[in-house]
């Protein structure tokens, strides 16, 4: 039996391998009962090792993160949340634009239709009634190019905000309240990382600076959103975070903030393991990932799937992709399916199911109280204060309890305990049945080749010796014949 046969190779490996107990099985000098006992023990050891390795892998894949609370708050710096303001109505601008683009005696219902276009939030009742359902629609009805009409009506930053201050220190509103594109049109937001050129204003509260009050005046009816620095205002934003602003009133919102701290090793896990995404793990419409940014992309895809077009405020769309009057009717009809979120298990509820993970750096904002008061002033504006009620005394901490190194240590310890193996044992197994097998095969092949050549050489030598002996005999006969002939002549 050669070393290249499977049986001899396996036996040779089992005799010399470093896995515990295997060499006893291959030892022919031992009694069959002892060898059978070792077979059972080795199988049980490998089975127990496999169970523990599978359990360690499952724990690493499904539950590598622990979520705890830190209370070492004395050295924390807490930022005020981002504040966004989105224009909700501007009757004067609608009147002026209507008189400009249409004749002064235009149909008044067209102004309501223009309002639906300029402040589209998923529904457009007047636009559909006046310009679609009407058997004889007005020739001035807007049937397409809605982004053009919306830009005519919407106001800029200076027409929306004024008198901004933080802790009684004034600053330029429009320098820090930067424009941001949303699915509700252009809004203005401070201290957000989602704008094209972020320019944050330092609003940090700690044990030394405990006061944090942001004040500004709003010049138009608007919606205020208090968000984390990575979030964006959307149609699907929770009403809990919004504040409807009416002119002639004062608004004071008191809130608290709790941040999330991440262990450095959290980055090494994948999003499914930690159940969140970092800002860099982004394939959406905004520069950084966040839950709200993900829902905007989800809503865009839902509009395309249901109505085969997008509304004129949707990000990263061109005019040909915008809905015309027929598309707006479709969006209006499916308002309940396109403006609300629902969990995956709520099959019979209207809304979108978006598979969006939360941000790993999200901020938990708790609204303590909203105080609304009336102001008698000749100026038509609203006064807004955003106040950090008190410093946080705790924050969340995301820790890695099972890292890749822990998995390696667990697997290595298990294999070492049950089967007496190390990394080199598995290298030896691969080496023996690849390199060693190929080497043995090559050696045997060379031996066979050398043996054949040696036999051929021996046969050739013998043939040559026979030929030379024959030639000598012929010469001897010739010489003898010549000598005999010479003697006869004499």
From TrEMBL:
<feature type="transmembrane region" description="Helical">
    <location>
        <begin position="36"/>
        <end position="57"/>
    </location>
</feature>
<protein>
    <submittedName>
        <fullName>Sodium channel protein Nach</fullName>
    </submittedName>
</protein>
<feature type="transmembrane region" description="Helical">
    <location>
        <begin position="407"/>
        <end position="435"/>
    </location>
</feature>
<dbReference type="Pfam" id="PF00858">
    <property type="entry name" value="ASC"/>
</dbReference>
<dbReference type="GO" id="GO:0015280">
    <property type="term" value="F:ligand-gated sodium channel activity"/>
</dbReference>
<keyword id="KW-0813">Transport</keyword>
<keyword id="KW-0739">Sodium transport</keyword>
<keyword id="KW-0406">Ion transport</keyword>
<comment type="similarity">
    <text>Belongs to the amiloride-sensitive sodium channel (TC 1.A.6) family.</text>
</comment>
<keyword id="KW-1133">Transmembrane helix</keyword>
<keyword id="KW-0894">Sodium channel</keyword>
<keyword id="KW-0812">Transmembrane</keyword>
<keyword id="KW-0407">Ion channel</keyword>
<dbReference type="InterPro" id="IPR001873">
    <property type="entry name" value="ENaC"/>
</dbReference>
<keyword id="KW-0472">Membrane</keyword>
<keyword id="KW-0915">Sodium</keyword>
<dbReference type="GO" id="GO:0005886">
    <property type="term" value="C:plasma membrane"/>
</dbReference>
